[in-house]
Amino acid sequence: MSVVSAPGKMILLGEHAVVFGKPAIAMGIDLRLTCTVRKGRQNTVNGQPLNERQHAYVAAAIRDHWPGGPLDITIDSEFPSGSGLGSSAALTVALLGAMSQMGGGIDEESVARAAFDVESTVQGRASPLDTSVSSHGQGIFVDSAPGKDLLWHIRRDSRQWYVHHCPVPDLTFVVGFTGIRAPTGPLVAKVKRYVDRTRFAKEVVDEIGDITVEGAKRLRDRDVVALGGLMTRDHNLLAILGVSSPELQRLVDAAIPFSYGAKLTGAGGGGSMIALTDRPEKVAGAIARRGGVPYIVRTGVDGVRAEDSPR
Length: 311
Ligand code: PMV
Hints:
This protein is α+β, with helices and mostly antiparallel strands. The protein folds into two domains: 167 residues, Ribosomal Protein S5, domain 2, CATH 3.30.230.10; 127 residues, GHMP kinase, C-terminal domain (Alpha-Beta Plaits). The strands form two sheets. Strands 1, 2, 3, 4, 5, 6, 7, 8 and 13 form a nine-stranded mixed sheet that branches. Strands 10-11-9-12 form a four-stranded antiparallel sheet. Strand 10 and strand 11 form a beta hairpin. 51% of the residues are buried. The structure holds (3R)-3-hydroxy-3-methyl-5-(phosphonooxy)pentanoic acid (PMV).
C-alpha cells in the first residue's frame, strides 16, 4: 500500500500573461489531496469501478504511466474541485507519486513531467504551472528563459517553460471561491483575441510581466505591503483584460479593507480570488457575507510526499 499527498495551488501573479511568454508565480497551499493506492482485483476509485469519463485523470495516469496490475485507489481531498485551486493537478500528482512510491521512491521531477503529460492528454492544452507547483510545493517561478534556481525545462509542441524554485515564506492568504466554475480555455482565447488586435492589451500583458518580476523580489524580502500592492495592481490589469467578473470583483472589494492586497487567481471569469492579510478571520467573514466560500490558507508547504501513517 502507498499513501501519498500533494498540495493545491494558487497563482500569485502572472496568470494569462504567462500564455504570452511572461513569467508567473504559483505557490502550494496547505490544503492537500491524498491518494491511498493498493493492489486490487480491478481498477477502482473510492470503491467504485474506474469510470473513464468521471475519472479521466486517473484513467490516463494508469493507461500511460502504470505498468502493473489493477489498482484500488482512494481519494481524499481537503478542497473542492473546480474552484481554481488545482485539484486535477493535485490528484494527478498524488496518484503518480503513489505509483512511484510502489515502485521504490518518489522523484519530484519525474512526477511533475508525468503529471503534465496526463493533464495535457486530458485537457488538450495545459500549462505545466499547476502540476509543477503541486509536485515541488513551496513556490515556482515559470519563465520563457532559464535563470537562477532552475528546477526543470518542459517542452510541448512549439511551447516551452523553464520552471524555477521560488522561495516562499509562511504567509497567510484567504481564498474566496465564487462558487462559479468557469472553464479556462474560453478565457485564454478571449485574452488572445484582445492581445492580437490591440497594442493596448499587449502593453497590459507587458505590465503584468513587470509586476510579476517585481513580486518575486518582494516575496523573497517578505515585504507583504509591497507584494499586496502589486497583487491589487495585477488584479486591475486582469480586469482590463476582461477576465474578472462581478462576483470576483465583489469578493476582492470585500477583502481589500482588511488586506495588503487582493486579486483574482487563475483563469478568472469565476473560480477564486486571493487576499494577502494578517487579519484572515476578518477577510473570511467579509467574503462569506458577500456570498463567497472562504478558505484560510498558508504557503511555504511541501510538494508531493509520502504519508507514512497508513489510513
Ligand atoms: O485556471 P487555472 O488556475 O489553471 O489557471 C489558468 C492560468 C492561465 O494563465 C489563465 C492559463 C495557463 O495555462 O497558464
